[in-house]
Amino acid sequence: MFDRIASVYDLMNSVMTAGMHHRWRERAADLARVGPGSTALDVATGTGDLAVELARRGAEVTGSDFAPAMLEIARRKAPGLSFEEGDALNLAQADDSFDAVTVGFGARNFADLDRGLSEMARVAKPGGRVVVLEITTPTKPPLSWFFKAWFDRVVPELGRLAGDPDAYTYLPSSVRRFPGPEELAARMAAAGLTDVRWILTAGGIIAIHAGTKPA
Q1: What pTM did the predictor assign?
Q2: What does the pLDDT read at residue 51?
Q3: Which of 72, 125, 192, 194 has its CA 20 to 30 A from that of 183?
Q4: What is the pLDDT of residue 4?
């Protein structure tokens, strides 16, 4: 599915979020706390936008994804970064390899969320950061009403216009299945991370979680 939508993925992200997705990735990169001399792994990197944000802060970045068509776009977008095919549930990288490990809008696609989080924690260095940027479901009206109308009606219609209605019907269902902020924080802690905190932005539609691997 992700290979099918690769050519329209960036455009659809911008349309669906009014371009705000770039700002949310900037905030996720800030929480990763990387800089010159740091190393970072961006899991489920897609077309590489979060990897690019990490690199802008001076980090040496590797982007990993299982969709070759997505990676082709990422490599064109950021030829100076390293992008490789990889399985988020079985990362090829060694234990304790990166100062930061991130995932932007990809954790809800993990076939096994707990295993994916554990893999991210495994490859982080002691003292390193694990950051998860995701859509979350607001619970208070009127935003909850708008969110439901947008994701259940408008997004699938945008997907139909883009030529892949199935993919953009999957998007709302994947968001509904994904844990809320408190549960996700608990599952990150269960994966071995400490000091797990999160911020909500965009009126509560976006959650950015960050935790630290114990030293």
Answers
A1: 0.90
A2: 98
A3: 125
A4: 78
Tell me the C-alpha distance between 164 and 160, whole Å.
6
CB contact at 8 A, 193 and 185: no
Domains of the chain: 2-9+17-137+179-212 (3.40.50.150)
Mean pLDDT over all residues of the chain?
90
Residue 158 makes CB contacts below 8 A (sequence gap 6+) with 12, 15, 16, 168
- Whole-angstrom distance, CA of residue 124 vs CA of residue 97: 6
Q: Which residue type sits at 150?
A: W
Q: How many helices (H) and strands (E) does the chain have?
A: 9, 7
For 111, residues 6+ apart whose C-beta sits below 8 A from its C-beta are 89
Q: Which residues of 30-68 are buried (b: 16+ CB within 10 A; e: fewer)?
A: ebbbbeeebbbbbbbbbbbbbbbbbbebebbbbbbbebe
What percentage of the chain exceeds 90 in pLDDT?
Answer: 68
| Tens-digit pLDDT profile for residues 49-81 | 999 999 999 999 999 999 999 999 999 999 999
Cis peptide preceding 142, ω within 30 of 0: yes
